[in-house]
Every structure is written in structure tokens, then in C-alpha cells.
Write a structure and sequence with these properties.
Rossmann fold; alpha/beta; 4 helices; three-stranded parallel β-sheet; globular
Length: 115
């Protein structure tokens, strides 16, 4: 049965659905692989549908071309599930910078959850 109906047959999918539905927005940290986001992330997003609608998302990419192609690919995927995406893209080139971005992301996600 397609995800749009929301009838999930596996427990792990129901848990994933409840977790995604509980947030108002997301920050995705994605590697660039073959000029796109990772297959695992794409699969995790496409396993659900209604849980994503009318939410917001920001992106942090890393890898080849500073992850820019992965972020653009992910923006298209999220657009199909009606997620509003942040337009600004600030490339990051791995290493110590990722740690500082991760600290910012953790603080931002806590802020979203407490509202």
C-alpha cells in the first residue's frame, strides 16, 4: 500500500512515522554520493508521506562540491512531499567545521521541539 494512505504494516515504520510527525521542522546533514544525496536518506524520506506535509527543512551538505549537488537533490525530494525548504546554501568542507555545525543543529532542533 502506498505511504500516502498511512497504513503501515511494520512496527518500525509506525515508530518512524510517529517520530517524524512529532517535529515541526528538520535539519538534514547529507553526504554527496554520485552527485546526489545518500540512498538511505532518500529511502527513509520516501517511506512516509503525510507526516512530512507542511513542515520546514534546512540542509547541510558535505563531500564533493561541498555537498551542493546533494542538497539540491534533497530539496527536490522534499518539495515532492510538500516540505518548505530553506533556500540559502552555505557549503561546508568536512573536518572541524562539521562539529561546530552539528552543535548549532542540536541547539536548533531543541528549540523546535520546545515550541
Amino acid at each position: 500500500m502506498p505511504p500516502v494512505f498511512g497504513h503501515y504494516s511494520h512496527d518500525h515504520t509506525r515508530v518512524w512515522s510517529a517520530k517524524i510527525a512529532s517535529f515541526d521542522g528538520y535539519v538534514f546533514v547529507t553526504p554527496e554520493h554520485n552527485h546526489a544525496t545518500s540512498d538511505a536518506l532518500k529511502n527513509a524520506i520516501e517511506f512516509l508521506h503525510n507526516e512530512w506535509i507542511n513542515k520546514a527543512a534546512g540542509f547541510i551538505g558535505y563531500g564533493g562540491m561541498s555537498g551542493a549537488r546533494a542538497v539540491e537533490d534533497l530539496r527536490l525530494i522534499m518539495g515532492e512531499v510538500q516540505v518548505a525548504t530553506v533556500r540559502a546554501l552555505r557549503p561546508r568542507n568536512g573536518g572541524p567545521r562539521i562539529a561546530s555545525v552539528w552543535k548549532w543543529r542540536t541547539k536548533w532542533v531543541r528549540t523546535i521541539k520546545t515550541k
